Amino acid sequence: MCGILGICGFEDVSSELVNGLISIQHRGQDAAGVLTYSDGRFRMHKGTGLVSQVFRKVDMSVLEGNIGLGHVRYATIGSTEAIDAQPFAVNYPYGIAMVHNGNVINFVKLRKVLNDVYHRMVETSNDVELLLYTFATYLQEKNLSHIGIEDLYETVEFVQQTVKGAYSCITYIKGKGFLAFTDPYGIRPLMMGRKITDKGTKYIFTSETAVFDYLGYDYVRDLEAGEAVFIDMDNKLHSRLLKRKKEAFCVFEYIYFAREDSVFRQRLVASERVRMGKALKERVEESGVKPDIIIDVPNSAYFFASGLAEAMDVPYRRGLAKNRFVGRSFITPNAELRKRVVRQKLNPIRDIIKDKKIAVVDDSIVRGTTSRHIVHMLKEYGAKEVYFTSASPPVKYPCIYGIDMSVKKELIAANCTIDEIAESLGCEKVIYQTLEGLRELYKDLPICDACFSGEYPTGITKEILAEIESEKLKSDRV
Ligand code: SF4
Asked: What is the pLDDT of residue 324?
């Protein structure tokens, strides 16, 4: 998962880009970058780490330009090194810069064609190179001295036909304009906003609407599956639906990835989580347990837990204190240290949990590692019984669209029954939402739920699945 941002305005946009990236920092903490365009050239700064670290010592006047792209990277596949940080740019056949969010699934074949047939040097393990080179190569093959909007739409259509997987892209073509497009299924989000100024309308494209609130833009709409939006050099907006398949928006954006104050497809993430929490009531009742209190795993599970508590009329309590300044546990090198980091990060509040039967609510259970530590801590601090409750169904299949769940053997629900999971976590019960329950909640929104159902909207072959697993294991960060 990554975060992307593009702004097309009338004065320098670099500060807005950096500030906007900070508001989507949760989408990627491995690397960050900004590219602007002015005086006939691209200006770029990128590096590894948080946005604040990457731009701490940068003189922003160096990044002048009224058009720019920004990116925060979470390396699901590929390295976490600076060479893989986005944006990327090429000089031929035009100056083209691009950022993307998602994952290309036919990367082996594409890399080979670009290398062997078109003699492009694919130098990094970042998918944006494949998208950018496919885009640039198509324009190059057309050999146009003047490209118009129809040529650009045709190029996007070619990319959508050739590149398989999930991608939302923002690109700038020197002297031509600003272009945003999605894959034919609209799996990853791409939102459009604008700001009316004295000089005209400024346009912004990004992964989450929270950026609009933060930078003072109005949310216009989501890009649709297979759509391209183009802002020409006269600042005129054009859009067209190109290669479009049945939409399949990633439901995990609502479950976990996105900020609670973001909106996708007119639905506020916080409200979606409350709705999912309320829907868990039926599952908890079916299981026969009667919790004294409901607690959340901070911070993403708060809205699920409060929704469940409201529906069940059982008190919600904050049972785990969170230290916001401790790093992520999964990048810690060994199990013992990981355990200590989880303990530093989350600590049970003894008086709240002692002698209680507790339903602890989380957004999902992926590997089970953190859930296990939480159950152990709650028991250690005197919980009478613990029911670990997941607002989403069991994650049984790898995500091949850019989320860090691409290896089946790491997914606890792919390898154990629900009773075995409860035993492995050390709790009395594990309660999941069901796939049918989730689908009922989203019957009026076409979603991707492949990590729960195994039904991949793009289709998948065993070979591609194996290639993705092997690429993931090469860049392993578990
Ligand atoms: S497989 Fe799961 S995480 Fe991946 S895009 Fe689909 S819903 Fe989202």
From this structure: 74
β strands within 299-457, DSSP E: 320-322, 346-348, 357-362, 385-390, 429-432, 447-448
* Contact indicator for 57, 18 with CB cutoff of 8 Å: no
Protein residue with least CA distance to atom 4, ligand 1: 399
Tens of pLDDT along 145-197? Answer: 788 999 999 999 999 999 999 999 999 999 899 999 999 999 999 999 999 99
- Residue in 134, 82, 62 with CA at minimum distance from that of residue 104: 134
**How far, in Å, from the CA of 453 to the mean position of ligand 1?**
10
Whether the predicted model's global pTM rises above the 0.90 cut: yes
CA of 253 to the centre of ligand 1 (A): 8
| Number of the ligand 1 atom closest to the C-alpha atom of 450 | 1
pLDDT at site 141: 87
CA of 448 to the centre of ligand 1 (A): 6
- Ramachandran bin of 117, using left for φ above 0, alpha for ψ from -120 to 50, beta for the remaining angles: alpha
Structure tokens at 123: 């130098």
Give the C-alpha separation, 369 to 375, whole Å: 10
199: phi then psi, degrees, rounded to nearest 5:
-90, -10
Q: Within 10 Å of residue 196's Cβ, how many Cβ atoms? A: 10
Indicate the fold that domain 267-456 takes in CATH: Rossmann fold (3.40.50)
Nearest CA to ligand 1 atom 8: 250
Tokens of 296: 């959340």
CATH for 3-248? 3.60.20.10
Q: In the chain, which stretches have pLDDT less than 70?
A: 76-80, 326-339, 475-478
Whole-angstrom Cα distance, residue 95 to residue 136?
A: 9
Residues in Cβ contact with 22 at an 8 Å cutoff, skipping those fewer than 6 apart? 51, 52, 214
Q: Ligand 1, residues 252, 406, 465: which to mutate, most atoms within 8 A of Cβ?
A: 252
> Is residue 427 among the annotated active site residues?
no
Which atom of ligand 1 is nearest to 251's Cα? 7
Per DSSP (E only), the strands in 426-476 are 429-432, 447-448
Whole-angstrom distance, CA of residue 45 vs CA of residue 36:
9
Domain ranges of the chain: 3-248, 267-456
Alpha-carbon distance of 333 to 344, in angstroms, equals: 16
| Ligand 1 cavity residues, CB under 6 Å | 187, 250-252, 399, 401, 403, 448-451
- Other C-beta atoms within 10 Å of 117: how many? 9
d(CA 224, CA 210): 19
Q: Where are the beta strands (DSSP E) in 283-336?
A: 293-296, 320-322
Q: At what angle do helices 369-380 and 335-345 cross, to 10 degrees?
A: 60
Partnered with residue 99 across adjacent β-strands are 170
Asked if 247 and 188 touch (Cβ cutoff 8 Å), the reply is no
